[in-house]
Amino acid sequence: MEDGVQMQSFETPVDTVDETFATLGGEICDEDQNRRNQSTYTDPFDAIDEADALEVAIQKMPAELRQVCEHLRCHSMSSTMEKFGLPRRRFNAMRVEIAEHLKKYGVTNL
């Protein structure tokens, strides 16, 4: 700790505008508390929801895009271009189409 700086517990009582009882931890938002604790909380169900959204979006793609997208999940771009015989321009255009399709279904965190 820096000289003259004291750490306070989140259970420390604080003055409020309406003079009701409150603790320091109760008066700061979760985001600020996480920043102060250098931790973040992520809901484990968010990852499940994102995975489900990704699967739904992929299944609703046109067949050609779906095949390329599924191959890209486990293989390199050069391997995917080679497997499907795609020139780089067509492959890049397909990647843009895939990204737009995923975005349309709410999949943005890849």
In CATH terms, what is the fold-level topology of the largest domain? Answer: Arc Repressor Mutant, subunit A
Order of helices and strands: EEHHHHHH
Largest sheet: 2 strands, antiparallel
Rg, Cα atoms, Å: 24 Å
The portion of residues assigned to helices is 55-70%
**What is the terminal separation in angstroms?**
38 Å
Number of DSSP strands?
Answer: 2
Beta-strand residue percentage: under 5%
Model regions low in confidence, pLDDT < 50 over at least 5 residues:
none
- Please, how many domains? 2
Shape: elongated
Instruction: Please tell me the CATH architecture of the largest domain by its name.
Output: Orthogonal Bundle
Query: For the record, what CATH class of the largest domain applies?
Result: Mainly Alpha
Give me the secondary-structure category: mainly alpha
Oligomeric state of the chains present here: single chain
Q: Determine the number of helices (DSSP H or I, runs of at least 4 residues).
A: 6
Strand arrangement, major sheet:
1-2
Mean pLDDT: 85
